[in-house]
Write a structure and sequence with these properties.
Layout (H helix, E strand, L loop, with lengths): L8 H12 L1 E5 H11 L2 H11 L6 H14 L5 E5 L5 H12 L8 E5 L2 H15 L2 H4 L1 H15 L1 H8 L3 E5 L4 H12 L4
Parallel strand pairs: 1-2, 3-4
Helix pairs in contact: 1-10, 2-3, 4-5, 6-8
Bound molecules: BIS(adenosine)-5'-pentaphosphate and magnesium ion.
BIS(adenosine)-5'-pentaphosphate binds next to α1, α2, α3, α6 and α10.
Length: 186
């Protein structure tokens, strides 16, 4: 599940994972859990996340590899917020190839910047997320996405797995759009 901050990756991944028996892996959720637990890793990553910058590639690649190896009895994975750089995409591809797995679909939620900012400002009232609290950090997250993460779309296009989905509308309508893409491959 791919898309800019606030595009609905988390919202949609949770229900897609239930419907298709997939393990939902959100690197953002994993990192926030490390911060909440007060771990060394969490302490090292918290300022980077609060500024809306990306944490180092090796940190998230290691997290994902451990989860993949520990998972049983699932039909597959839904990655949310990962890969976020071309380096992460290459690492994921070789990690999967070494385990006889592959990326079946890259679903890109398309949402304009105004709607993204609106959604995150609204969520700031309830989420407690440090990176939602400051409009300057929200803008930075969108800029970091355009500069470092959007190039991964081209990577997915070359691999022939990329599909853009309109991410504006009701949560249910967007869910149906995503399901119709997934059902083409199962
Ligand atoms: P991460 O947790 O991945 O955050 P993000 O990409 O900034 O995206 P969000 O979680 O804010 O948005 P979302 O797309 O999940 O949308 P959601 O469903 O919540 O990353 C956070 C930080 O961790 C990064 O900045 C970085 O520091 C670090 N990090 C994480 N992964 C990393 C990686 N791989 N490499 C390096 N660093 C990494 O929806 C947003 C809001 O909109 C919600 O309130 C929701 O209720 C609402 N909403 C959803 N759908 C709709 C709709 N259709 N209409 C109206 N509102 C809607
Ligand atoms: Mg999310």
């Amino acid at each position: 599940m791919f898309g800019p901050p606030g595009s609905g990756k988390g919202t949609q991944s949770v229900t897609l994972a239930q419907k298709y028996n997939l393990l939902h892996l959100s690197t953002g959720d994993m990192l926030r859990a490390e911060i909440a637990a007060g771990s060394d890793l969490g302490k090292r990553m918290s300022a980077i996340m609060a500024a809306g910058e990306l944490v180092p590639d090796d940190v998230v690649i290691d997290m994902i590899a451990h989860k993949i190896d520990a998972t049983r009895e699932k039909a597959g994975f839904i990655f949310d917020g990962f890969p976020r750089t071309v380096e992460q995409a290459e690492a994921l591809q070789s990690m999967l190839a070494g385990r006889e797995m592959k990326i079946d679909r890259m679903l890109v939620l398309e949402v304009n910047d105004e709607e993204l900012t609106d959604r995150m400002k609204k969520r700031a009232l309830i989420s407690g997320r440090a990176d939602d609290a400051d409009p300057a950090v929200i803008n930075n997250r969108i800029e970091v996405y355009r500069a470092k993460t959007e190039p991964v779309i081209e990577y997915g296009r070359k691999a022939g797995v990329c599909h853009e989905v309109d991410g504006v509308g009701s949560v249910e309508d967007i869910f149906q759009r995503l399901c119709s893409q997934i059902e083409r491959i199962i």
